[in-house]
Structure formats: C-alpha cells, structure tokens
C-alpha cells in the first residue's frame, strides 16, 4: 500500500520533474503532467482533492482500456476523463515497486526526447 508521500518521492526522483503547487500533488516534466492527485467533482459541491487517488498519464486509449479491464480494482475512470489517455489509480491497492513502474512509465511517455537522451537507465 502506497500513499501521496510515496508518489511524491517517486516522482521527484525522476530527472527534470517539477512539482506544481497544489492542494495535493501535481508532477510535470517539460510542462507536461504525468501524475497528480485526483480532483473529484460532484455536481453542486466544491471540488475535493483526493490524495488517495492519482491521475496517471498512460499514453493512449488502448493502454487505458487494457489497465481498466485488466485490473478494475486498481484502475478506474470517470466520464470527465473519457477520450483522454488518463486513468485513476487507487494508491492503497498497489505496492511501492508497482508505483515506481507506473510513475516512471508515465514520466517516460511525457519527457521530451532531448531531455531523455541526457538520462541513461531511468525506468529501464
């Protein structure tokens, strides 16, 4: 089981990562988000930042569907994320090793090639 502080440690260990000030966590590389806390919206109520759920960049719809169908206890989505290459990740359902894998993969998909070429061995 991991939490928001684990997400923070993993994300900040990746080169060129910047944490954007927020009520939760929000990590970017070259101004592209790769993992952030879920801003839950309920009609008629204020937005609630969920530190127990991460929004994770997954690259494309095929990967999104594979994760959603393959591990519905770990990953889910909402209508607000329809058509976007993002899944919601229940942090309490994974361990640190899996978190490192997921966050590193998201980072690798967002980091520009020019920055990636400066970094050997990250996520490989």
Mean pLDDT level: 93
Hey, roughly how much beta strand do the residues contain? Answer: 25-35%
Oligomer: single chain
Low-pLDDT stretches: none
**Element string (H = helix, E = strand):** HEEEEHEEHH
Span between termini: 23 Å
Identify the strand order in the major beta sheet.
1-2-3-4-6-5
Structure class: alpha+beta
What's the overall geometry? globular
DSSP strand tally = 6
Percentage of residues assigned to helices: 25-40%
- What characterizes the major β-sheet? 6 strands, antiparallel
Cα radius of gyration in angstroms: 14 Å
Number of helices: 4
Architecture overview:
- The chain is α+β, with helices and mostly antiparallel strands and 124 residues long.
- It is 31% helix and 27% strand.
- The chain contains 4 helices and 6 strands; from the N terminus they run αββββαββαα.
- It has a 6-stranded antiparallel sheet with strand order 1-2-3-4-6-5.
- A hairpin with a 6-residue loop joins strand 1 (17-19) and strand 2.
- The longest helix has 15 residues, at 96-110.
- It starts with a helix and ends in an 8-residue tail after the last helix.
- The relative contact order is 0.21.
Concise synopsis of the structure shown:
The chain is an alpha+beta fold and 124 residues long. It has four helices and six strands. Helix 1 crosses helix 3 (96-110).
């Amino acid at each position: 089981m991991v939490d928001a502080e684990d997400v923070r440690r993993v994300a900040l260990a990746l080169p060129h990562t910047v944490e954007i000030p927020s009520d939760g966590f929000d990590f970017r590389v070259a101004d592209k988000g790769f993992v952030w806390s879920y801003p839950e919206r309920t009609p008629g109520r204020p937005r609630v930042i969920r530190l127990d759920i991460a929004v994770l960049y997954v690259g494309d719809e095929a990967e999104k569907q594979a994760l959603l169908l393959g591990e519905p206890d770990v990953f889910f989505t909402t209508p607000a994320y329809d058509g976007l290459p993002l899944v919601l990740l229940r942090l309490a359902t994974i361990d640190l090793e899996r978190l490192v894998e997921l966050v590193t993969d998201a980072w690798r998909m967002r980091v520009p090639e020019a920055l990636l070429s400066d970094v050997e061995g990250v996520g490989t």
